[in-house]
Amino acid sequence: MAYFPKELLVYAVQQHFQERLNKKLTWARRVGIRDERIYHLKPIMPVVTSKSFNIPIEVTTDNVDTVAEQHYPLCMLHLHNYLRRNHHLKYDCKMQLGIFLKWVGMPYEDMLVFWKEEFTQVMTEEKYEKEYVYLFKHQYGKVGSKLQYKPYTCERIQSFTPAVNQEHGCPFKHWDQSSLSAKLEEELGGDYEQLQDIEDLVREKHYVGACNKYLCYKNPAASSSEPIASPNEYVQKSMLSDLYGVNEVKDCLDTLLDTL
């Protein structure tokens, strides 16, 4: 018997419905189904299939280290850990991590505390307030033009060309093989077959596939059926897999959706 918190059911149903819908649409395109009823659904499909990043666990200054270790993709986990060690990030790194934090749901006040506690370990509070805090407020749309930044996609992150001593980008694409292998061994416990599977995908330049495989090995309850499109989607998928990864819950959701 599987027990599931009722207050989190909406997240599980949404995720499971998206997966089922995407599978069926892919199948319909592949077999060439021509059903006139489908065309009536086309105007609402972008809404139904959109990725809304409903994160079931709120990320705060109190739990961010635990959430990062358990649910961050490798690109964001690396930036998070680098920041914790060095208490500073360069501009592109701050942009990649800062916008991620916004879309992963860290509250504005927690975000301000998070960055300030790190940066003021290597600089005065006055310098931080004068030179750095504006960027973090801007990322949340609170100052200046109040621009609403879109979450970085995997495609965009892979398009970066990090210079020497810059930490942003995609580890599966931008790291050398020895650095990536060492990090994967650290994160996955040295399972040779798992490491080989991921490294094979990297050699074939299937970087999203490698990241998806990394998620499934780090969190075995996660589904590998749908590719990951962004770090925020990775977090959502990882968290939800903890909540409804057991087969009994998935079977219940299948039964529920079949009756709708």
Helix and strand arrangement:
Elements lengths: L8 H23 L4 H6 L3 H4 L15 H8 L2 H13 L4 H14 L3 H12 L5 H7 L1 H7 L14 H6 L11 H4 L2 H12 L3 H12 L3 H12 L12 H14 L2 H12 L2
Helix pairs in contact: 1-16, 12-13, 13-14
Characterise the protein shown here.
InterPro entries: DNA_primase_C, DNA_primase_lsu_euk/arc. This protein is mostly helical and 260 residues long. The protein has a domain at 60-70 and 81-164. It is 64% helix and 0% strand. The chain contains 16 helices and no strands. The protein has helices spanning 9-31, 36-41, 45-48, 64-71, 74-86, 91-104, 108-119, 125-131, 133-139, 154-159, 171-174, 177-188, 192-203, 207-218, 231-244, 247-258. Mean pLDDT is 83; it is low at 42-52.
Provide a short characterization of the protein structure:
The protein is mainly alpha-helical and 260 residues long. Helix content is 64%, strand content 0%. The longest helix has 23 residues, at 9-31.
List keywords for this structure.
16 helices; 64% helix; globular; 260 residues; mainly alpha
- The helix-and-strand class reads mainly alpha
Radius of gyration: 20 Å
Distance between the termini: 23 Å
Number of helices: 16
Weakly predicted, low-confidence segments = 42-52
Approximately what portion of the residues adopt beta-strand conformation? under 5%
On the 0-100 scale, what is the average pLDDT?
Answer: 83
Number of strands: 0
What proportion of the residues is helical, as a percent range? 55-70%
Task: Please describe the biggest sheet, giving its number of strands, its sense, and whether it closes into a barrel.
Answer: none
**Succession of helices and strands:** HHHHHHHHHHHHHHHH
Q: What is the global morphology?
A: globular
Keywords: 4Fe-4S, DNA replication, Iron, Iron-sulfur, Metal-binding, Primosome
Cofactor: [4Fe-4S] cluster
Pfam family, one: DNA_primase_lrg
GO biological process, one term: DNA replication initiation
